Amino acid sequence: MPDARPTRRIQGSCPCGNLCFTVDWPGSPGAIPVRACGCTMCRKHGAIWTSHPEGPVAIEVADEVRLLRYRFGTRTADFHVCLGCVAMPAVICSIDGSRYAVVNASTFDGVERSDLIEAATDFEGETTEARLERRQRNWSPSVSGSDEA
Known about the structure:
Blueprint: E1 7-13, E2 19-26, E3 32-37, H1 40-45, E4 49-50, E5 57-61, E6 67-70, E7 78-82, E8 90-95, E9 98-104, E10 108-109, E11 116-121, H2 128-138, E12 144-145
Parallel strand pairs: 3-11, 5-12
Antiparallel strand pairs: 1-2, 1-10, 2-5, 4-9, 6-7, 7-8, 8-9
């Protein structure tokens, strides 16, 4: 039987449109929880991340040459940075053959800032194993689209 719950389709992109994404967010429109990571990379990019463990993400990249997949810290995820406008709209992590993503709510199109409920997060000291388990549990699954690296 198909899932009858309402779904909110959220679209986002970097300012120049090179990297676009769609999240099918389960549930009615309303508050979206976002995480303000305290790491240097996220703070300096003004990134506030969100994901839904039941909300698949599709990512499209217009020009792969203008996309940097940057790994730092534990080197377990690819931060997608557009080289055209230097925005960081998404992060993708592969775990046991499946892909998971978080998207930067600062890059949402048509979502009011007042719809975002922000909480500070700090993953400093988290083991790599715990980090991957958390991502597998909380990040959006079924990442698909033209970005298959």
